[in-house]
């Protein structure tokens, strides 16, 4: 290996190490602090706890309406993701197989143009419009998540569908399959890596999202999601780090478990459509 190759390798590993530390250090502090007593926390954030103190978790779970916030997050996430993974493949299939037609090409570029618009730009118009429609509630949140989630999902699915040979559909048509049966029996099973990818990406985003719930749901505590509960997790005079970090840990746990068991689908789904056979 020449000097340039060694330098490139050193630089790559340095960047990866720094990036890993940026991720692991906050996670370490969060988990460690959640198992500490207030006295241990006041001494140092970075030291390990003397014993795994579970009182913080019990107090968080015992807080008023905690399970209401969990239910709100689960309902919003599950319904939004279910609608996205149902409609995104259908719309993407119609677009990808009719892309030479002007209408479908215009529709595709119109949809993905939303990727280039930052949320901060549309935040105030969204609030004004949702207030006008009286949708500053959980139903309005679900509608917004579906609308925003379909943009990226359709972009990914169209790219993936272009890698699936059209000859498979022609063979199914010769065998007497209708377009709907061809999609459900032939195309949709082949899209399972991409469907899993958009499911995971949207579930991660919606479960952890803070800005949209803050904009739409922050007026009424009974409609809070877990990120909003954590944002408002403070007393009148101080901020209890132990309880806050225990709340963060409880919130992260289901998503971490899901990600650990499904991360391979994200990689396969995002790369499968990048190279055409």
Beta strand %: under 5%
Number of helical stretches of at least 4 residues: 13
What name does CATH use for the topology? MetI-like fold
Helix content: over 70%
Structural class given helices, strands, pairing? mainly alpha
Mean of residue pLDDT? Answer: 85
Low-confidence spans: pLDDT under 50, at least 5 residues? 273-277
Number of domains: 1
Number of strands: 0
Tell me about the biggest sheet? Answer: none
Give a nutshell description of this structure.
With 277 residues, this protein is an all-alpha fold.
Describe the structure.
The chain is mainly alpha-helical. The protein has one domain: MetI-like fold (Orthogonal Bundle). It has helices at 3-34, 38-43, 55-62, 66-96, 102-112, 119-132, 138-161, 167-174, 179-190, 192-208, 211-216, 226-231, 241-272. Helix 1 (3-34) packs across helix 13 (241-272). It starts with a helix and ends in a 5-residue tail after the last helix.
Question: What's the arrangement of secondary structure elements?
Answer:
Blueprint: H1 3-34, H2 38-43, H3 55-62, H4 66-96, H5 102-112, H6 119-132, H7 138-161, H8 167-174, H9 179-190, H10 192-208, H11 211-216, H12 226-231, H13 241-272
Helix pairs in contact: 1-13, 3-13, 4-7, 4-10, 7-10, 8-9, 10-13
Q: Top keywords for this entry?
A:
mainly alpha, MetI-like fold, disordered C terminus, about 75% helix, about 280 residues
């Amino acid at each position: 290996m020449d000097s340039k190759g060694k330098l490139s390798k050193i630089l790559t590993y340095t960047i990866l190490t720094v990036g890993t530390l940026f991720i692991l250090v906050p996670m370490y502090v969060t988990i460690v602090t959640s198992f500490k007593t207030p006295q241990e926390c006041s001494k140092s954030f970075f030291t390990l706890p003397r014993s795994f103190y579970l009182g913080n978790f019990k107090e968080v779970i015992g807080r008023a309406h905690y399970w209401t916030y969990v239910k709100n997050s689960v309902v919003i996430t599950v319904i939004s993701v279910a609608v996205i993974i149902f409609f995104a493949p259908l719309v993407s299939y119609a677009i990808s197989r009719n892309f030479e037609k002007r209408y479908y090409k215009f529709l595709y570029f119109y949809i993905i143009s939303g990727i280039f618009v930052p949320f901060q730009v549309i935040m105030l118009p969204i609030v004004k419009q949702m207030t006008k429609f009286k949708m500053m509630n959980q139903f309005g949140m679900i509608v917004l998540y579906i609308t925003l989630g379909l943009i990226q999902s359709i972009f990914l699915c169209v790219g993936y569908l272009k890698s699936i040979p059209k000859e498979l559909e022609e063979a199914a048509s010769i065998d007497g399959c209708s377009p709907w049966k061809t999609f459900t029996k032939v195309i949709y099973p082949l899209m399972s890596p991409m469907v899993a990818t958009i499911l995971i990406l949207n579930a991660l985003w919606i479960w952890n999202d803070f800005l949209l719930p803050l904009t739409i749901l922050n007026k009424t505590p009974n409609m809070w999601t877990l990120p909003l509960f954590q944002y408002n997790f403070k007393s009148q005079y101080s901020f209890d780090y132990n309880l806050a970090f225990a709340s963060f840990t409880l919130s992260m746990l289901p998503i971490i478990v899901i990600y650990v068991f499904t991360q391979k689908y994200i990689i396969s789904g995002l790369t499968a459509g990048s190279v055409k056979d």
